[in-house]
């Protein structure tokens, strides 16, 4: 396979990350990204996105909701007696 | 000899709980309640998450005897929590469909990115550019705006770190479909966050 451009490369990224691309396609994608500053930047932000969203949505369990859960389970099960 | 205290494994706790040991069930709840709440917030909303949390552990309690250990206990529990969240969402009002095409990356006629490297990179620097609380609010908003199919795959695969094969089982689709949906979700979220930072994707 030859001729990976930015658009076709972007479409392959998840399959590349998961290692399900044929070896020649993988190699062509890597070669394109290595020589393309735009794609290198795109890949960095594509990878940063899940990390960013994961950190931003890593909420703690509020104490009042934990207390409600415990009360609910005490009422509906034999636990937390 | 001092024997260091070792927490019992999930599977050991599950076995004891299934045999009627309520303290083992309580230990399971304590171990997983924050993770289940987080998952519920990501798949539904902060308003609905407390109900999903309660549903999940009630179902875990009721079905403990049917846990056979053919999967890891955590995977089994996550499957129950995910289904509880999806059921809950199905019961609530539908959101109007929204066009998200504007958040996809743009290419010129030759298939090259139209944005500059600095513009394309900006999401990687979001931590430094946006206030933490604003980022949290916007990230929550962004997930909620994703089409449900993309949202579910992205939350499970990318936020909960579930292997793609497990996500496929939970959602009842092929792994290739999961990858395609996660990819789409990443493109949209990336574009949404870029836009938030003042850059067109």
Structural summary, described in words:
The complex is a heterodimer of chains A (81) and B (201). The mean pLDDT of chain A is 95. Chain A is mainly α. Chain A has four helices and no strands. Chain B is 65% helix and 0% strand. In chain B, α2 (22-43) packs antiparallel against α3 (49-63), α7 packs across α10 and α8 runs antiparallel to α9. The relative contact order of chain B is 0.11.
Task: Give the helix/strand layout.
The complex is a heterodimer of chains A (81) and B (201).
Chain A: H1 6-17, H2 23-34, H3 37-56, H4 63-76
Helix pairs in contact in A: 1-2, 1-3
Chain B: H1 10-18, H2 22-43, H3 49-63, H4 73-91, H5 117-121, H6 126-129, H7 132-145, H8 148-159, H9 164-171, H10 175-196
Helix pairs in contact in B: 1-2, 2-3, 2-4, 3-4, 7-10, 8-9, 8-10, 9-10
The largest sheet of chain A, given as strand count, sense and whether it forms a barrel, is: none
Structural class by SSE content of chain A: mainly alpha
Shape of chain B: elongated
Supply the helix-strand structural class of chain B. Answer: mainly alpha
Percentage of β-strand residues of chain B: under 5%
Shape of chain A: elongated
* Helix and strand sequence of chain B: HHHHHHHHHH
Kindly provide the radius of gyration of chain B, computed on alpha-carbon positions and rounded to a whole number of angstroms: 20 Å
Overall pLDDT score of chain A = 95
| Low-confidence runs of chain B | none
Order of helices and strands of chain A: HHHH
Helix count of chain B equals 10
The separation of the N and C termini of chain B measures 62 Å
Strand content of chain A: under 5%
C-alpha termini separation of chain A: 65 Å
What's the helical proportion of residues of chain A? over 70%
């Amino acid at each position: 396979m030859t001729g990976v451009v930015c658009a076709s490369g972007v479409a392959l990224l998840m399959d590349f990350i998961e290692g399900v691309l044929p070896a020649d396609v993988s190699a062509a994608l890597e070669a394109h990204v290595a020589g393309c500053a735009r794609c290198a930047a795109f890949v960095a932000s594509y990878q940063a996105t899940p990390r960013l969203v994961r950190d931003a949505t890593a909420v703690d369990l509020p104490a009042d909701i934990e207390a409600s859960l415990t009360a609910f389970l005490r009422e509906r099960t034999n636990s937390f007696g | 000899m001092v024997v260091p205290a070792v927490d019992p494994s999930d599977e050991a706790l599950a076995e004891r709980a299934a045999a009627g040991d309520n303290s083992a069930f309580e230990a399971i709840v304590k171990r997983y309640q924050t993770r289940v709440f987080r998952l519920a917030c990501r798949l539904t909303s902060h308003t609905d998450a407390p109900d999903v949390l309660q549903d999940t552990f009630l179902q875990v309690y009721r079905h403990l005897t049917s846990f056979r250990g053919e999967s890891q206990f955590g995977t089994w529990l996550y499957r129950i929590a995910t289904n509880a969240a999806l059921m809950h969402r199905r019961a609530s009002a539908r959101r109007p469909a929204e066009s998200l095409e504007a958040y996809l990356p743009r290419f010129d006629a030759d298939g090259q990115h139209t944005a500059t490297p600095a513009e394309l990179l900006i999401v990687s620097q979001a931590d430094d550019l946006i206030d933490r609380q604003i980022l949290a609010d916007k990230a929550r908003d962004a997930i909620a705006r994703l089409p449900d199919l993309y949202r579910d795959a992205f939350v499970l695969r990318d936020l909960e770190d579930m292997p793609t094969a497990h996500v496929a089982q939970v959602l009842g689709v092929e792994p290739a479909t999961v990858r395609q949906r996660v990819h789409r979700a990443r493109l949209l979220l990336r574009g949404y966050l870029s836009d938030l930072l003042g850059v067109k994707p």
